[in-house]
Amino acid sequence: MRDNMKVLDIAPHRNKRQEFADKFRSEGHDIVSVPGRREALKLLAEQSFDLAVLDAASDLYDTKELVQELREGAQNDPMIAVFVAPRNRPPRQRLTGRTKNVVVLQDGSVDHMTRMIHLAFTIRDKDGDTLDAVEVPLEEEDEALESSQA
């Protein structure tokens, strides 16, 4: 995985998302926060990002549409992380349409979420190819959450 990633954080209003951005920043990654969809699409057309972060349930945008717009409007091929609220997980295909390079993560500990993003990049970089949409199964996720909080 890249040593220093450029991350586009779209509408990071929730505390968990702000903690996530702070964690990535503390690891030396560059975080660019934008208030919504329009600003995100404009930046993605002008600059390259390694990762775009958004929420599955936002009052500011339709997540499924935004994922598609990010895929079409990006200058490069960024990984897209979609955070869903605990135990309120919609089916992956409804959210992402099984779009490549999309990681759907249930909110948990910030350490767990950052590890899942790092894992997705490691898998992608190892093969030098893009990922199919990824979702951590609930059983494995519960285990990972418990071990990350211990």
What tags apply to this protein structure?
150 residues; Rossmann fold; 6 strands; disordered C terminus
Q: Kindly provide the radius of gyration, computed on alpha-carbon positions and rounded to a whole number of angstroms.
A: 14 Å
Question: Architecture, according to CATH?
Answer: 3-Layer(aba) Sandwich
**Topology pattern, helix = H, strand = E:** EHEHEHEHEHEH
Largest sheet: 6 strands, parallel
The domain tally reads 1
| Number of contiguous helices | 6
* Total beta strands: 6
Spans of at least 5 consecutive residues with low confidence: 137-150
Order of strands in the sheet with the most strands? 2-1-3-4-5-6
Specify the overall morphology.
globular
* Named CATH topology: Rossmann fold
Describe the protein.
With 150 residues, the protein is of the alpha/beta class. The chain has one domain (6-149): Rossmann fold. It is 45% helix and 19% strand. The chain is built from six helices and six strands, in the order βαβαβαβαβαβα. It has helices spanning 15-26, 37-46, 63-73, 92-96, 110-127, 138-149; strands spanning 6-10, 30-34, 51-55, 79-84, 102-106, 134-135. Strands 2-1-3-4-5-6 form a six-stranded parallel sheet, sandwiched between helices. The chain starts with 5 loop residues before the first strand and ends with a helix.
